[in-house]
Amino acid sequence: MRALGKHGDALRKKYFSQGIRPGEAGANWKAIPEYADYIKRHDEQYAQSRKLLEQRVKLKLEQRRALRELLYVDNPSTFDVVHKSKFASSDPRTAALNNGIEEFQRLVSANIIPPGSALQVRKGGRGRSSMGQVMSLTTTARERTVVHEMGHWLEDVNGVVHEKAIAFLDRRTEGDPVVTMNRAVRDKFDRKGYYDGREKTKPDEFRDPYIGKQYIGRDGQPYATEVISMGLEYMYQAPVAFAQEDPDMFDFIYRVVRGQ
Length: 260
Hints:
By secondary structure, this protein is mainly α. It folds into 2 domains: 5-69, no CATH class; 80-256, no CATH class. The protein is 51% helix and 9% strand. The chain is built from 9 helices and 7 strands. The chain has helices at residues 5-17, 33-69, 92-107, 143-157, 159-173, 181-189, 227-237, 239-245, 247-256, and strands spanning 80-83, 118-123, 134-137, 179-180, 200-201, 215-216, 222-224. A 3-stranded parallel β-sheet has the order 1-2-3, with helices on one face. A hairpin with a 5-residue loop joins strand 6 and strand 7 (222-224). Helix 1 runs antiparallel to helix 2 (33-69), helix 3 (92-107) crosses helix 4 and helix 4 (143-157) runs antiparallel to helix 7 (227-237). The longest helix has 37 residues, at 33-69. It is globular and about 80 Å long. The model has no long low-confidence stretch (mean pLDDT 85).
């Protein structure tokens, strides 16, 4: 039976106590006038609540878009996109990819994209960059996923951006111990982490300890960071919260994407 709250349960108990069952009262409980009236009012309230929720979500998205537009650069970036896999028009990744690329271009200036740079995209993976200028998208990838992964791509194609990200990370985490991602998540959010035990970070006071994740090559040098990718994702998804909670990183990303 449908869940209709305490009043609905009370009505059921009332009729059950009288020996009335759905089959005896007609095709269903709606055959009982008192109960049918309750169902009608419940459904109307549910529809109204759902409509209000949809309006709230729409308003929130519009506000977020308006705030993000304040961060758009004067000279949006352009580059070629090479599809290593065919994305059908009905594939949800198609819209996420197209919209995500467009948002990245609006947030990143053309002057920091080296001439001839091309973004390669393919299906599969876990929705993260392979660190080799190829972006893999899972079926659950969203626009924010694309913006995030393109931050990795930007570090790959622009060595200056990469060096700035490393310098920023070194400054913010100087003297901090290297800990596992799982421990950092537990300490920061008081919940269990589900990372591989080999994944390490220097958490600092970042909004998310993932920003300080360590990518160290065989030569002992960092070959990537999460600084640009997470920063761009925050610029896209939650610019106000980003600016309020970590103004230092916000200002850094703001300058870097403009080539400053």
